[in-house]
Backbone:
């Protein structure tokens, strides 16, 4: 949500200087790297490396945008384009992995899992579209650069919202009853970690119920 609000605020800044636009883009990329590191801590171990790799690429792009001595329109636009391309490809791959996890959940439980795989797919497709727009735009437009930087922050915010919705869907108890934890590693988005937390909470609740049955309140 913070990224989304930041994205709405960026076009309102005084962005007539290429250096200012490059600095804001660098800040957005570094904040995106920090969010990927946090996401890696809550994600399944099999997917953790992908978040860390994405964070490393964002750090490189952020440093380039911040320390470039005299940024031109082409430098800033191509930096933004590479961000959109890398993140768009990553989101599309993640969406297909999430779709496979949902199919496994439906096969295990005999029900229908919440269809949330399409969200990163749509976001990724739009990001790739903006990447080609940014790299192929022929004229020097500061307002477009500011718009692309705002869209970069918005893309990060929408991805985190999609991740939160995915985690919320995994937390629902119905699909976890018949779903193997190993099947959730393909989901990314912290599926295995959330599932393990749900199992632990269910075990604690069951032990508490058993203890209350053995030792009623009046016998203590």
Residues:
């Amino acid at each position: 949500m913070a990224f989304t609000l930041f994205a709405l605020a960026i076009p309102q800044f005084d962005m007539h200087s290429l250096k200012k636009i490059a600095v804001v883009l660098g800040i957005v990329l570094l904040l995106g790297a920090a969010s990927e590191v946090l996401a890696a801590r809550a994600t399944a171990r099999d997917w953790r490396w992908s978040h860390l790799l994405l964070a490393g690429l964002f750090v490189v792009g952020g440093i380039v945008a911040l320390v470039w001595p005299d940024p031109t329109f082409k430098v800033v636009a191509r930096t933004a384009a590479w961000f959109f391309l890398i993140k768009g490809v990553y989101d599309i791959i993640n969406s297909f992995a999430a779709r496979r996890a949902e199919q496994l959940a439906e096969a295990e439980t005999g029900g229908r899992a919440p269809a949330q795989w399409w969200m990163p797919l749509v976001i990724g497709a739009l990001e790739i579209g903006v990447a080609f727009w940014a790299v192929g735009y022929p004229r020097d437009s500061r307002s477009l650069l500011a718009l692309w930087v705002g869209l970069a922050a918005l893309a990060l915010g929408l991805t985190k919202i999609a991740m939160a919705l995915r985690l919320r869907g995994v937390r629902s108890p119905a699909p976890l009853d018949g779903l193997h934890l190993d099947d959730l590693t393909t989901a990314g988005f912290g599926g295995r970690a959330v599932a393990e937390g749900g199992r632990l909470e269910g075990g604690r609740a069951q032990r508490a119920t058993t203890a209350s049955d053995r030792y009623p309140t009046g016998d203590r």
Remarks:
- The helical segments are 2-9, 18-41, 45-67, 73-109, 118-136, 142-171, 173-177, 191-214.
- The radius of gyration is 22 Å.
- Residues 173-201 have pLDDT under 50 and may be disordered.
- The first helix runs from residue 2 to 9.
